[in-house]
Design brief:
The complex is a heterodimer of chains A (293) and B (325). Chain A is built from eleven helices and no strands. Chain A is mainly alpha-helical and 293 residues long. With 325 residues, chain B is mainly α. Chain B is built from 14 helices and two strands. In chain B, 37% of the residues are buried. Classes of the chains: A mainly alpha (293), B mainly alpha (325).
C-alpha cells in the first residue's frame, strides 16, 4: 500500500478559468480598467453620503465656472444647479441603461447566433438574413425612431439600444457555434444521446463563452455611448437624472460654459474606457496566443 | 458563376433589403401608440378634423392593413415618401436636399480614416513596440471610448477659444463671395473639423487592424522568400504585404458604414452641418414622423449601396474571390 508522502508531489490541475484569471491579473489594461470602474462606482454610489447635495436644487448663479464659488466646486449649469452633485447622482441611471441594454443585446445575440450556427441550413439562412437586415439600418437612427415613436423612459431607451445592437453578438456566436459544433466532444455528447437543447446550452455554449464574455463587456460600453448619444439629441428619459440628461440639457450652452457638457461627457468617457480596458484585458487573458503582440 | 449573374443576384438581394426596410417603416407607423393618422400628422398642435380625414383618405387608413401596405409600398417605390407637415414639403425633396452634405462628410471622413489609418498601421508594424505603435493603441482605445459628440465639442471649445483658426459651425460662410471655387474652398474649410471628428475614431481602429494584419503577414513564408531574393524593403511592405493587409480594413469599413452614418448624425448636430443628421434632429424635435422615417429609409439605402460597392472593391483587390476559389 502506498500513500502520498509529500503533498507537493500531487500535480494540481489548473482549470482554464483559473488560468485566465491569473493572466487577467497580469494584464495592465484589464487591471487599469478594473481600477477605473471601481473608482467610478465608488464615486457615484458612495458619493451622496459624502456630498449630500440635491442635483435638482439651484445652489448658485447660473453658469458659474469651476472653482469660482465654494457652494459649487465644479461650477453650475444653465439653471444654477451644482455640477458636482449632478456627476455623483447621474451615474446610476447611466450604468443601469448600459447594463440592461447590454443584457438585452447579448441575450438576443446569443439566441439568434446559437440557433443559426447549430441548426444551419434553412434556419441559418433565415436568421442571417434577419441579422443582415438589422445591420443595414443605421443603429442610432433606428434607435431614435423607436424612442420617438414610444415614450422615452429608461426602459424604452434600454430596449431600443438592445434591439439595434444585437447583430454583432449574433454573428460572433454563430461563428463560434459553427467552429465547435463538429468537434469531438460534441459528437461524443451526441453519441450518448444528448438532445439538441442540451448540446446547445450545456455542451457548446460553455465552450464558446470566452469570446462572448469579452463581447459582453464591450457591449455595455457601447450601450452607454448609445444612451449618451440619444440623450445628447434630447431623447433621454427626462424624468431620471443621468449624465446623458446633463449633456442633453447643457448642449446649447457649450460656448457659454465648457464645463456644463465637458464634465458629464468625461464621466461617460471614463466609464466606457473602463469597460473597454477590461474587455481588452479579458481578451488577452482568454487568448494566450495574442499576448506576445 | 459569370459576372453578370453575380451582379444580378447582388442587385436582387439589395432590392429585397430595400423592400424589407419599407415594410419595417410601415410597421413602425402602425405599431406606435394611437391612430396612424395621429402619428403621420404628428403632434402638430391639433390637426383639424378635415386634415385628419384627408390623411386617412390619402394613406387609405380606412382599408384593410394589407391593402394599406400595398399602397404604401407602391407609393414609396415611386419615390413618394409622404409629406412633411412640419416643413410643408414632400419628404423626398427634403431628404434629397440634405443628402449631399451628409454623403460629402461621411465620404471624406471614411477616406481620411482609411488612408491615414492604413499608413499609420504600416508604420506601426515596422516597429511593433515603437512610439507610433503605442500612439495608435492609445488613440484607438480613447477614440473607442469617447462619445463622438463629446470629442466634437472638445474640438469646438478648442478652436472657438484657444486657436480660432477653423470654423466651428455650418457648411459655408454666407457673407463670403468668391465665385464657384471660392465656395468650394470655403466648404472644404468648414469640412475639416467635422470630418476630423468623425474620421478619427475609425482612423485609429483601421491603424490597429492594419498593424495586426501586417505583423501576421510579415511573418509569413512568402515575405521571407521575397526578402531572401533581395526585394527592397519598401517594396516588400508596399507591394507584397500591404496588398493583403488592406483586405480586413476594406471588410470592416464596409461593415461599419451604418455606424459611420450614426456617428455623422451626432457630428452634424454638433457642427450644425446641414445634412440628414441635423434634419433628423430637427424633425424629432417637431415629432415629424414621415420625415424621420424617410431619413431612416434613405440612410439604409446608403448602407445597402455602400455594401454593394465594398463587395466590388473587395473583388477588385483580392483576385482569389473573383475566381471563386
Amino acid at each position: 500500500m502506498t500513500t502520498v508522502e509529500n503533498s507537493q508531489d500531487i500535480v494540481q490541475s489548473q482549470s482554464p478559468w483559473r488560468e485566465a484569471a491569473r493572466a487577467f491579473r497580469q494584464s495592465w489594461a484589464g487591471m487599469l480598467g478594473m481600477l477605473i470602474l471601481i473608482l467610478v462606482i465608488l464615486f457615484t454610489f458612495a458619493g451622496p453620503f459624502f456630498y449630500p447635495v440635491d442635483p435638482f436644487e439651484i445652489v448658485w448663479a447660473p453658469l458659474t465656472p469651476p472653482g469660482a464659488a465654494e457652494q459649487a466646486p465644479l461650477g453650475t449649469d444653465y439653471l444654477g444647479r451644482d455640477i458636482l452633485a449632478g456627476l455623483i447622482n447621474g451615474g446610476p441611471a447611466t450604468l443601469f441603461v448600459g447594463l440592461v441594454a447590454g443584457i438585452i443585446t447579448i441575450t438576443i445575440g446569443i439566441l439568434v447566433g446559437a440557433f443559426a450556427g447549430f441548426y444551419r441550413g434553412m434556419v441559418d439562412e433565415f436568421l442571417m438574413r434577419v441579422t443582415e437586415f438589422f445591420q443595414v439600418l443605421p443603429a442610432l437612427l433606428f434607435a431614435m425612431v423607436l424612442v420617438t415613436l414610444f415614450t422615452p423612459t429608461i426602459y424604452v431607451v434600454s430596449l431600443a439600444i438592445g434591439i439595434v445592437s444585437w447583430p454583432t453578438t449574433a454573428r460572433l456566436t454563430r461563428a463560434e457555434f459553427l467552429r465547435i459544433r463538429n468537434l469531438e466532444y460534441v459528437n461524443a455528447a451526441r453519441s450518448i444521446g444528448a438532445r439538441n437543447r442540451r448540446i446547445i446550452w450545456r455542451v457548446i455554449l460553455p465552450n464558446a463563452l470566452a469570446p462572448l464574455i469579452v463581447a459582453a463587456t464591450l457591449t455595455i460600453g457601447i450601450a452607454i455611448l448609445f444612451e449618451a448619444g440619444l440623450s445628447f439629441l434630447g431623447l433621454g428619459d427626462p424624468n431620471v437624472f443621468s449624465w446623458g440628461l446633463m449633456i442633453g440639457s447643457g448642449r446649447e450652452y457649450i460656448l457659454d460654459g465648457w464645463w456644463v457638457v465637458t464634465l458629464p461627457g468625461f464621466m461617460i468617457f471614463l466609464t466606457v474606457l473602463g469597460f473597454s480596458l477590461v474587455g481588452d484585458g479579458l481578451n488577452d487573458a482568454f487568448n494566450p496566443k495574442l499576448r506576445e503582440r | 458563376m459569370t459576372m453578370t449573374l453575380l451582379v444580378a443576384r447582388r442587385l436582387l438581394h439589395a432590392f429585397l433589403l430595400i423592400l424589407a426596410v419599407l415594410v419595417l417603416n410601415f410597421l413602425l407607423i402602425h405599431m406606435a401608440p394611437g391612430d396612424p393618422a395621429d402619428v403621420i400628422a404628428g403632434e402638430m398642435g391639433g390637426a383639424t378634423e378635415e386634415m385628419m380625414a384627408d390623411i386617412r383618405k390619402t394613406y387609405g387608413l380606412d382599408k384593410p392593413v394589407y391593402v394599406q401596405l400595398g399602397v404604401y409600398l407602391t407609393r414609396a417605390l415611386q419615390g413618394d415618401l409622404g409629406q412633411s407637415f412640419f416643413y410643408n414639403a414632400p419628404v423626398l425633396d427634403l431628404v434629397a436636399s440634405r443628402a449631399g452634405p451628409t454623403i460629402l462628410l461621411v465620404a471624406t471622413a471614411l477616406l481620411f480614416a482609411i488612408f491615414v489609418g492604413t499608413l499609420l498601421g504600416v508604420i506601426a508594424s515596422h516597429k511593433p513596440k515603437g512610439f507610433v505603435s503605442g500612439l495608435v493603441t492609445v488613440v484607438s482605445v480613447i477614440g473607442y471610448s469617447a462619445p463622438i459628440f463629446w470629442t466634437g465639442m472638445m474640438l469646438v471649445i478648442l478652436f472657438a477659444w484657444v486657436y480660432p483658426i477653423f470654423p466651428i459651425a455650418n457648411m459655408y460662410d454666407i457673407t463670403k463671395s468668391g465665385g464657384f471655387f471660392g465656395r468650394v474652398i470655403d466648404i472644404l474649410y468648414h469640412l475639416i473639423l467635422p470630418s476630423l471628428t468623425l474620421g478619427i475614431v475609425y482612423l485609429a481602429q483601421y491603424a490597429r487592424l492594419t498593424r495586426a494584419s501586417m505583423l501576421e503577414i510579415l511573418g509569413s513564408d512568402y515575405i521571407r522568400t521575397a526578402r531572401a531574393k533581395g526585394v527592397a524593403e519598401v517594396k516588400v511592405y508596399g507591394h507584397h504585404a500591404l496588398r493583403n493587409a488592406v483586405l480586413p480594413v476594406v471588410t470592416i469599413a464596409g461593415l461599419q458604414f451604418g455606424s459611420i452614418i450614426s456617428g455623422a448624425v451626432l457630428v452634424e448636430t454638433v457642427f450644425s452641418w446641414p445634412g440628414l443628421g441635423t434634419l433628423a434632429f430637427e424633425s424629432i424635435l417637431a415629432r415629424d414622423y414621415p420625415t424621420i422615417l424617410g431619413i431612416l429609409f434613405f440612410s439604409s439605402l446608403l448602407v445597402i449601396v455602400a455594401n454593394l460597392i465594398t463587395d466590388f472593391v473587395y473583388r477588385l483587390v483580392d483576385p482569389r474571390i473573383r475566381t471563386g476559389g
